[in-house]
Amino acid sequence: MAGRIPQSFINDLLARVDIVDIIDSELPLKKTGRDFQALCPFHGEKTPSFTVSQEKQFYHCFGCGAHGSALGFLMEHKGLSFVEAITEAARGVGLEVPYEGGETPTTPSVDYSPIYAILSPAADSP
User: Fold this and answer.
1) I want to staple 49 with a disulfide (CB 3.0 to 4.6 A). Which of 5, 15, 29, 63 is the partner?
2) Crossing angle, helix 82-92 and helix 70-78, to 10 degrees?
3) Distance CA 96, CA 111 (A)
């Protein structure tokens, strides 16, 4: 099993990434005062209620209540796991994710053939 990502690396990563850069690469942000705004990607709207604070490094939607950090945005908007969000954010600032124990995560190989064998007759029936 792969080691854990050290908390010190996560803290350093969050200090290095800019939430505005991460979100602006996914949806266009418009500078409004000291914050940025856009149409919320989590619900349909015609007037921007999605606000990004560069100073505080978080986003908040006043329409649907979605909020979080740069990692939270990557997880919610792109459907990434926590580790995948860390990996993508680290790649954006040119860092390699360290793992305690020096191991890198591997994708477990799961044999789904017994499940497919059970479900196949059900899929074939009218």
Assistant:
1) 63
2) 120
3) 30
Share the mean pLDDT of the chain: 88
pLDDT in tens, 32-73: 999 999 999 999 999 999 999 999 999 999 999 999 999 999
Kindly list the domain boundaries of the chain, sorted by start residue. 7-124
**What's the fold here for domain 7-124?**
DNA Primase; Chain A (3.90.580)
Transcribe the chain into DSSP letters. -PPPPPHHHHHHHHHH--HHHHHHTTS--EEETTEEEE--TTS--SS--EEEETTTTEEEETTT--EE-HHHHHHHHH---HHHHHHHHHHHTT-PPP-TTS----PPP---HHHHHHHHHHHH--
pTM above 0.70, yes or no: yes
